[in-house]
Amino acid sequence: MSVDTPAHSSAPASPGSPGLASGALSPLEVFGQSLAATGPSIAIGGTIPAIYLTAGSGSLWSTAVGTAIALLVAWVVAQFARRAASAGSLYSYVSLGLGRGPAFVTGWGIVIGYVGIAAACLVGAAVYLGALLDSVGIPATGTGAQLALLVPATIAAAVLPVRGVRLSARVGIVVEAVSLLVILVALGAVVAHFGFRLDTAQFTARGVDLNTVMLGAVLAVAVFVGFESAGSLGAESRDPFRAVPRAIIGTVVGAGVLYVLSTYVQVLGYDTDAALATSGAPLNELARASGVGWLSPLLNAGILISAIACASASVNAAARSLYNLSREGVLPGPLGRIHPTHRTPHLALYLLGGIAGLLPLVLIATGSGTLDVYAWTAAFGTFGYLLAYLLVALALPLHLRRRRQLGAAAVVVSALAVLAIAYVLYKNLVPVPAWPVNVLPYTFAALVLAGLAWYLTLLRRDPSRAHALGTHILSADESTPDTPASPVSDLSKDSRDPKDQEQSA
What pTM value is reported for the model? Predict the structure, then answer.
C-alpha cells in the first residue's frame, strides 16, 4: 500500500510519493490507538461517578444504553473501514457517501472534538499528578501548581506521538493495561468490602424514571468517544481492512463490558455513601472506604499516565486529519509536513498539542476551577465526535448503494445510529444547561461554520484544490475504486467535478 506525501504547496500531493510510515503498525498497535484515545481508566475514575450523580440506581442501565449506542456507531464506522483506508478516517468515509462539503465539516468537527478531549485529558493529568505529589507530602493542588503541572503534561502529550506512531501505540497499550489492572484490584476490594450481591435496586433502576436513565446514557456515550481513531492509522497499518474494523469493534465491546461491570461495582459503594461520588477523586475515596487506601498513589499514577496517553492519542488522530487535508491541498502545506526521521506529521502534532494545552491553561489562569474546566472541555469536544458520528451514519447507506452492496442491516443500523445520536445531541441542548455550558454548542457551531467558510472560499477561488478533498483513499477492492460521492459533494451543483458527474451518470 502506498502512502501519500504531504502537500508542501497549494497543489494536492501525489498518491504514490513517500509520506507516513506505510505498513508500520501491527493489528495490536492499531488497537492501542483506539484504546488509548478512549481512555477507559479516566472514564472509570471520573465519568462513571458523574453518571451515578445523574442517574443514581439507574446508572447500570444508563451505561448499558450508552454501550448500545456506541456499538451502533462502531458497526457503521467498521463497514467503511472494511472497504476503505485513509489517514483522514471519518471525513474520508463521509466523502464516499455524502460528498466533499459534508466531508470537510466532518473532518473539521472531529479535529475540534479531538482537541477538546485532549484538553480535558491534560486537565485530568494535572489533577492526578497534583494528587500524586500531594500524597507524598508535596502540595500541588492549588491553582498555581495546577498551571505549572499542565506544562509538562502538554509537552509529553505532544512529543510522544512525534517520536513515532509505533511508540505512541505501544505506550498506550502498556499504560492502559497497567492502569486498568490497578483499577480492577481497587474494584475487587470494593466488592470484598461491601459484598458482592444481586443488587435488585440497580437491575430495576429503583426510584429512577426512564428520562433520568436516558440522561445518564447521554453521559455514558461520552466515555466511548475516540474508539474510531484507529481509522486514522489506516495508511500506516499492515492490514488496514481487517485491523482497523477489528480495533474499532473490539474497543467498544471490551470497554462496554468493563464499564458495565465497573458501574455495577462502584454503585454498590456509592449507594452506601453517595458522598464518595462527589469527591474530586472518587475512585480514591472508594478505595479508602474499602480499606485499600494504600492503592491511592498507584491509582493516581495509573490515571495520570492514562490521561497523558489519551491526550497523546487524541492529538495523534487529529493531526492525521490535518495531514490528510493538507496532503489533498485543502489546508496549508506546512500542516502536512512529516518528520524526516520519525515519519510523523510533527508540525500538526505540535500545533494541536499546543492548542490543547493552552485552552485549559487560559481558563484556569482566569479563575475557573480545574474540575469545571475538565467538564467544559470534555463536553465541548464531545460535540465534534457526535457531529462526525451523525454524518458517518448518514453516509453509509448512500455509499453502499453506490457500490450496489446496500442491505437491510446497513439501513436499519444506520437509521438507529442517526436517531440515537440525534437524541443525545437534543438532550445536550434541552433543557438549556447552566452558564457557561449553554454556550458551548453554539461556540462549537461557530467554529465549524468558520471552517466551512474556508472550504467554500477555496471552492470558489481554487476549485481544483477543493475537488481534491477525499481523493486520497485506498479501496479494499481496487476494481471498485472509492471516490467522493457527487450528489452533494461541494454544496454546489454547478461546481461538481466532471469526473464525478460521469460516475454518477
Answer: 0.91
